[in-house]
Automatic annotation (TrEMBL):
Entry similarity comment: Belongs to the ABC transporter superfamily.
Source organism, top-level taxon: Bacteria
Segments traversing the membrane: none
Molecular function GO labels: ATP binding; ATP hydrolysis activity; branched-chain amino acid transmembrane transporter activity
Species of the source: Allorhizobium taibaishanense
Designated name of the protein: Urea ABC transporter ATP-binding subunit UrtE
GO biological process: L-amino acid transport
PROSITE patterns for the chain: ABC_TRANSPORTER_2
Native organism taxonomy: Bacteria, Pseudomonadati, Pseudomonadota, Alphaproteobacteria, Hyphomicrobiales
């Protein structure tokens, strides 16, 4: 389980996270929703070690991650699919996947077959450059690259952003498969309400750097939840 307690995060004098606490249990999909700029990406940057926190604790399966470099967090089982995907445009699809080998012991450096069962297009495009793929294909590649690291928790930042509906369906199916087949934890940040309502076991809503709502996916339709999500 991932446990985040009382997290504060600053950019200079500006505070982006205020006392954020949440858990993401193994075998469950946890969604964090919120409008633009409320701190969702900052929360994931804190968890993956891309930005230091000013206060609070981040722990995964008994290990405290605070102060640990992103590379070592990957070794502890944190897989990250960043916003905007961050595919290497000049590397081939195969080479992009192989960048996921970095935190692995030599004997584990292989590409798991289920990546190609989930996203068959990646297998047919193995020698194409990452930059030649469509946005949806790049999103599938970013998820595949994170899967190569054999994560115990997959952390995804707005995986549906700018993606066509058919590929959103494939991504939803892949996330469910990963939860059910491997029992990994999934922590997903989103603005797309319907996607979260269908997938989530548990939801949190953020507003202005704070968690303002928590509950089952069905609670997203309450007046109180909607108040924090509508512009
Ligand atoms: N590198 C940065 N330097 C200064 N301020 C930042 C930086 N990154 C984010 N912020 C500010 O921190 C706040 C939270 O931003 P964050 O990106 O975490 O929100 P978000 O909910 O993920 O939004 P989006 O959906 O647009 O990505 C915003 O006010 C944003 O302007």
């Amino acid at each position: 389980m991932l446990t985040v307690e009382n997290l504060n995060l600053h950019y200079g004098a500006a505070q982006a996270l205020r006392g954020v606490s949440l858990t993401a249990p193994m075998g469950k999909i946890t969604c964090v929703l919120g409008r633009n700029g409320v701190g969702k990406s900052s929360l994931l940057r804190a968890i993956t070690g891309q930005h230091p926190v000013s206060a609070g604790t981040i722990a995964f399966e008994g290990a405290v991650l605070n102060g640990m470099a992103p590379f070592n967090r990957a070794r502890h089982g944190i897989g990250y699919v960043p916003q905007g995907r961050e595919i290497f445009p000049l590397l081939s699809v195969k080479e992009n996947l192989e960048t996921g080998f970095a935190p692995l012991a030599r004997k584990d450096r292989s590409i798991p077959d289920d990546i190609f069962s989930l996203f068959p297009i990646l297998e047919t495009m193995l020698s194409r450059r990452g930059g030649d793929l469509s946005g949806g294909q790049q999103q599938q590649l970013a998820i595949g690259r994170a899967m190569v690291t054999r994560p115990k928790i997959l952390v995804l930042d707005e995986p549906t952003e700018g993606i066509q509906p058919s590929i959103i369906k494939d991504i939803g199916r892949a996330i469910r498969y990963l939860r059910d087949s491997t029992g990994m934890a999934i922590l997903l940040v989103e603005q797309y309400l319907d996607f979260c309502r269908e997938l989530a076991d548990h939801v949190y809503i953020m507003d202005r750097g704070e968690i303002v709502h928590e509950g089952g996916a069905e609670t997203l339709d309450t007046v109180e939840a909607r108040r924090h999500l509508t512009v």
